[in-house]
Amino acid sequence: MTHDTYLWSPPPVYSVPVRGKSERFPIRRLFFVGRNYHAHAAEMGRPVDKANAQLFYFTKSPSTLVESGATVAYPPETRNYQYEMELVVAIGTAGFRVSESEANKLIYGYACGLDMTRRDLQLAAREQGRPWDLGKDLEESSIVSAIVPANGSVLHHGELAMTVNGEPRQKADLSQLIWSITEIIADLSKFYHLQPGDLIFTGTPEGVGPVVTGDRIEGHVEGVGEISLNIGPAE
Ligand code: MN
């Protein structure tokens, strides 16, 4: 029994559904790519010149995971809670220092994701050279739709778009990613032993903005699926 081993019940295994399967996809880690669309990098005041830039990442705890369709509380200690609609790559095979040409073999499938952000806290941390955790790694901030199995195939294009209360806010094409899916996997695998259950949020296009209590976000990625989120009252 649990109480013979642990003082209290250990955290659950976080997981998301897989389209067409009864088994769920158990989550290991959540990785996020920063600044991976030119127009978004520019709107954040940090334009990217790929020739002189490197991929960079941040992480969130798996406990921040929320399934599409949920209602989340407006989070504490922010006045600027923002959406970031993203393509999510689900890793299904372990890999370390994989080449770009082999990177696709790690791909289990894809999902739609929302990287919800306390933008005021993120930017304050950025300006002071501090970690982004308070702005990014907040409870209920990683929203994921059902994973669509892809069996190693790489997405090169497809519309990514989202609305708030039915009004268009972000719209882009996956062909606009500065670093491609296979470039991201190869690069990230230099730093981490990628494992089944890792999710990689691949970055957001331009048009990020705030939401308030009562708002409903709806988004889609062509060929992957749809995602939604309702913003509830603050606690
Ligand atoms: Mn993001």
Quick structural summary:
It contains 5 helices and 18 strands. It is an alpha+beta fold and 235 residues long. A hairpin with an 8-residue loop joins strand 1 and strand 2.
Number of strands: 18
Intertermini distance: 34 Å
Rg, Å, rounded: 17 Å
Q: SSE order in H/E notation? A: HEEEHEEEEEEEHHEEEEHEEEE
Listed once per kind, the bound small molecules are: manganese (II) ion
Overall description:
This protein has 235 residues and is of the alpha+beta class. Helix content is 14%, strand content 34%. The chain has 5 helices and 18 strands. Strands 3, 4, 5, 8, 9, 11, 12 and 15 form an 8-stranded mixed β-sheet that branches. Strands 6-18-17-13-14 form a 5-stranded mixed β-sheet, with no helix packed on it. A 3-stranded antiparallel β-sheet has the order 10-7-16. A hairpin with a 2-residue loop joins strand 13 (159-164) and strand 14 (167-173). The longest helix is centred in the C-terminal third of the chain and has 11 residues, at 181-191. The two termini are 34 Å apart. The mean pLDDT is 97. The structure holds manganese (II) ion. The site of manganese (II) ion has 7 residues, from loops.
List the helices and strands and how they pair.
Blueprint (H helix, E strand, L loop, with lengths): L1 H4 L9 E2 L8 E2 L3 E4 L4 H6 L13 E4 L4 E3 L3 E4 L6 E3 L1 E7 L15 E9 L1 E2 H9 L5 H4 L5 E3 L3 E2 L9 E6 L2 E7 L7 H11 L7 E3 L7 E2 L5 E6 L3 E10 L1
Parallel strand pairs: 3-15, 5-11, 6-18
Antiparallel strand pairs: 1-2, 3-4, 7-10, 7-16, 8-9, 8-15, 9-11, 9-12, 13-14, 13-17, 17-18
Manganese (II) ion binds next to loops.
